[in-house]
Amino acid sequence: MKVVHRVLDPNLLDPDAEACCALAVMTKAPRAGRVKTRLVPPLTTEEAAQLSACFLRDTADAIAKATGDSARGIAVYTPVGAEEAYIEILPHDFDLLPQRGKGFGERLAAANEDLFRIGFTSVCLIDSDSPTVSAECYTQAVNLLSVQNDRMVLGPSDDGGYYLIGMKKNYHRLFEEIDWSTERVFDQTVQRAAELKLPVEFLPTCYDVDDRSTLRRVCDELLGENARSTINTAPATRAFLREIVEREGRARIWALEK
What we know:
Layout: E1 21-28, H1 45-66, E2 71-78, E3 95-98, H2 104-118, E4 122-126, H3 135-144, E5 152-156, E6 162-167, H4 185-195, E7 200-202, H5 212-223, H6 235-248
Parallel strand pairs: 1-2, 1-4, 2-3, 5-7
Antiparallel strand pairs: 4-6, 5-6
Helix pairs in contact: 1-3, 1-6
């Protein structure tokens, strides 16, 4: 019998969270027509959902490689009731935590608050749109948050956002007055940290895959001439994209740049 992942209750302390960093990926259940809609076309709605599942599978795999006694993988998911959707996607030792809040900023702030209430010593909130982020980046974030002095860790995305935000305390201010889904998110978050006199440590820059141009970019990285150099990167995403290209040709999803 397939076992559904454990769902954490933010009103209960978890003894296993003590002295542990939560590597928590924000995720929406990969259902056709509900995820990755900016990739339709060239993908169909069903393919977009399948690719979303591949992104999450690769992100969770990288997180799992970075975890140990000092970190745990969590999926902060929506909607409630979609728990079974993650059985074949997440490693068995990942836990689930329901999202709450209306807008994206509220959901991030609520997830951060809930994870600290559960008892985690530090929290990293991670996006599910950056499948090429390495396990080394997540390990670096955990290590940076394990030192004594207070700080924030930020993984920049080159579209002006971030793929990871980590902290040792629940700073709600870091999610306030942010123009979400714009190129100003990263700079405004750094400004909020400055207001709090909170030192910031930066991870390597990465990118989100959420439109035609970034789909072409990830195809270039995983399937292009230099793909051998990224052979261990995003295996589920690589296999899914390769299957489409081999079946229907490059032009189907990986058109040459004009």
